[in-house]
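queue> pop job 88
queue> type: inverse folding (structure -> sequence)
queue> payload:
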């Protein structure tokens, strides 16, 4: 859904990407810094209940995920290691964000909502794994209602606005994200099942 905004974001980030590349900064360095900053900010601000400033800082670092892609495309087709590193660190960043929320919700006594946030974390990992495993088996799996950009936007916006004291925004956002992630898992499983059923490939162990 948010992929429609990628061309506009790319145009905005391209000058910054060129400037960093001229200074010898590689896309992999940007990826690593973005992930470290995301995790550090999430685990520093969120457990303290500082949801709004935490979400702002995290958003700045999350933009590095888009910037490293822009830089990689400017330098050529990109490397296998860079693609692998980017996907792996995406999972680390997501884990940091939702772990920070889970910790704060538990400390705040909101145990039910903490479980919802934990479900969002697990479901998001499953969504990504299903796609990676399907593509590793030679199938496509680029479908689903809630992919990583949507998870980040909903999660960060809900946490940020909730941190300003607006009631029900955080709980509503997390429940919406939980349902959307569950639907996405089912969508991807069905998509892969249809491809596997129509394929005459040999059995896999």
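queue> result:
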């Amino acid at each position: 859904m948010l992929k429609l905004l990628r061309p506009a974001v790319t145009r905005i980030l391209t000058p910054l990407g060129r400037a960093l590349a001229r200074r010898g900064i590689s896309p992999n360095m940007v990826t690593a810094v973005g992930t470290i900053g995301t995790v550090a900010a999430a685990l520093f601000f969120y457990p303290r209940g500082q949801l709004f400033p935490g979400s702002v800082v995290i958003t700045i670092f999350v933009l590095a995920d888009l910037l490293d892609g822009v830089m990689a495309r400017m330098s050529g087709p990109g490397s296998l290691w860079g693609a692998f590193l980017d996907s792996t660190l995406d999972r680390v960043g997501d884990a940091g964000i939702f772990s920070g929320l889970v910790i704060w919700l538990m400390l705040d006594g909101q145990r039910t909502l903490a479980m919802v946030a934990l479900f969002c974390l697990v479901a998001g990992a499953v969504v990504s794994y299903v796609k990676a495993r399907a593509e590793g088996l030679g199938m496509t799996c680029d479908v689903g209602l809630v992919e990583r950009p949507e998870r980040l936007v909903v999660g960060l916006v809900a946490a940020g606005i909730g941190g300003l004291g607006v009631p029900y925004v955080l709980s509503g956002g997390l429940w919406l994200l939980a349902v959307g992630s569950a639907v996405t898992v089912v969508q991807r499983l069905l998509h892969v099942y249809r491809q596997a059923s129509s394929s005459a490939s040999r059995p896999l162990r």
